[in-house]
Fold:
Amino acid sequence: MTAEATPALVEGTAADPAKSGPAAGRGPRTRTATVYPRYMVGKLAGAAVSLLAVLVTSFFLFRLIPGDPVKFMTGGRPVSAQQIAVYRREFGLDLPVWRQFTDYCGKALTGDLGTSYQFRAPVIDKITEALPNTLLLTGTAFVLYTALGVHLGTRSAWRHGGPGDRLNTGLALTLYSIPSFWLGLLLIIVLSVGVGPVPGLFPTGGMESGGKEGLAYVVDVAHHLVLPVVTLVAVEYGQTLLVTRSALLDEMGSDYLTTARAKGLRDDLVRRRHAVPNALLPTVTLVFVNLGRTVAGVILVETVFSWPGLGGLFYQALSVPDLPLVQGLFFVFAAAVIVMNTLADLLYPLLDPRVGR
Structure:
């Protein structure tokens, strides 16, 4: 290359707006700004399709359950064919299946989930009535087992291979493999009924004893809350612990941690400020999934402890079968999980810009 060509090349490069100047600095940022909206639209469209699939599934799935709702509504009493026809007409059971399906979908899109057979009340009212009780139980357990799982998972990964790590992972795997209803029954036998010298310390079930107000009522509800919350925390915290531990172990050998230690940072600061934030993406997904399940509640635990929430209501509706109530609860349960998963997907690119590109 000649000396005369060199200044021309340098001059041409400096004058090219696509390769230098402020526009070059704005290029990656502009691409990110256009990529994320497309990523968001794709995730929202996928969530909408999933909700539609749940709506269809909730209608046809529970019609496979054996049982006649009309027999439940008549209490097993001998009734005439004319009376049975009146009941079927009242709840639309005399219509063809395709007509029932179109009516169900049309009403569901407006927020009308039908009328419960056994309660003779709108399904949405029964769900709204039981939802606060479920959120109290599963929300309390969610906060406790998430905090416990993240803390113990972080400690176990940072000292992996030690006695504390082996104890934590072994106990977490053991409790995670135990069925929640079995553990709940065991706690009722030991801590509610009492075994040998161990007296019964907690109620066997329900949400309150009744007849109490103010602070006494709050204490009474908290007393009833202990065993179901302990059951959920014991069974669920292990999953968060194992996911957090695995993600943090993947970060342990990273160069940026070695650099942080070389700068003289304390081991505790390296863990909290550098390692843990970069290892939380899998845990964030799990937290949002569990948050969606918080709305659904835990059917078996609520049934075992006679907790008046959505899980107990679902079990009660299945025994009839109360088709509108079962369909409505199933849709709410699935929609909560889908919404929370979508929120996690939308949050991912904000936590890690590499996601969604």
Remarks:
- The CA atoms of residues 36 and 51 lie 22 Å apart.
